[in-house]
Design goal:
single chain, alpha+beta, ATP Synthase, domain 1, five-stranded mixed beta sheet, five-stranded antiparallel beta sheet
Length: 141
């Protein structure tokens, strides 16, 4: 039997995922990280992107997170996300529209606050679209 690590993904709305995994990949603030069983303890901030959970059978589950914290212990990985959504539940049309609105706001920047908010919304929309695209590629192969 292969070694596994327990993974919990939670957001303000509630628990999104809880189970065993062979490997976990997450968008840490300074770059993507891969976490295997018995990984050294780690705490880092997450940026918007996709968290991938690989099962023992090789199946990959995708989750979108808008940011948050990642805590790694030798046998447990905890993702505390601001927002977490299963990638298959993402709305591509809504993400494309949010991206368009953010780009329009950036083009006509009127106030510093609006500009910063538009940048954050654009980053989140792009991260959602990337997660959707990765899921689409996974289904195609």
């Amino acid at each position: 039997m292969a070694m596994t690590i327990h993974v919990d993904i939670v957001s303000a709305e509630g628990a999104i995922h809880s189970g065993q995994a062979a490997m976990v990949y997450a968008p840490a603030e300074m770059g993507d990280v891969g976490i295997a069983p018995r990984h050294t303890p780690l705490i880092t901030r997450l940026r918007a992107g996709d968290v991938r959970v690989a099962s023992e059978s090789g199946e990959m589950d995708y989750f979108y997170v808008s940011g948050g914290m990642l805590e790694v212990q030798p046998h447990v990985v905890t993702v505390l996300a601001d927002t977490a959504i299963r990638a298959r539940d993402l709305d591509e049309a809504a993400a494309v529209e949010a991206k368009r609105r953010a780009e329009d706001t950036l083009a006509g920047k009127t106030a510093e606050f609006e500009y910063a908010q538009a940048q954050a919304e654009l980053a989140e929309a792009v991260a959602q679209l990337r997660a959707i695209e990765k899921l689409r590629k996974m289904k195609a192969s």
